[in-house]
Design brief:
Structural class: mainly alpha
Helix content: 55-70%
Order of helices and strands: HEHHEEH
Distance between the termini: 53 Å
Strand order of the largest sheet: 1-3-2
Largest sheet: 3 strands, antiparallel
Strand content: 5-15%
Number of helices: 4
Number of strands: 3
Radius of gyration: 21 Å
Shape: elongated
Length: about 90
């Protein structure tokens, strides 16, 4: 049985072609998910996204942004907010 042992350059090339793109895509989302809170207040959402509290009120009143109400407290699920921003993204013209 013959075994193939790649050279250092071939191994480096293989890693760059296969692993680097995967890490570039996955690592940022893993870090973001590990450090984020699941539920945030309007003030926290304003800090995170730059969406002012008044703009949040406007979007809620038009039922355009997902939110949850606990008594008088408004809470946003970050997964739902991220999905809202993804779904409403406008691609630039090329």
């Amino acid at each position: 049985m013959n075994a193939y042992i790649p050279s250092k350059e071939e191994l480096k090339s293989l890693i760059e072609e296969t692993i680097k793109p995967l890490l570039k895509e996955e690592i940022p989302s893993l870090i973001r998910n590990a450090s984020k809170k699941q539920w945030v207040s309007p003030e926290e959402l304003e800090e995170i996204s730059g969406l002012t509290i008044r703009s949040q009120q406007h979007l809620r009143s038009e039922k355009r942004i997902p939110y949850h109400k606990e008594g008088r407290k408004i809470r946003y699920n970050m997964d739902e907010i991220e999905a809202y921003f993804r779904d409403n993204r406008i691609e630039p013209r090329s």
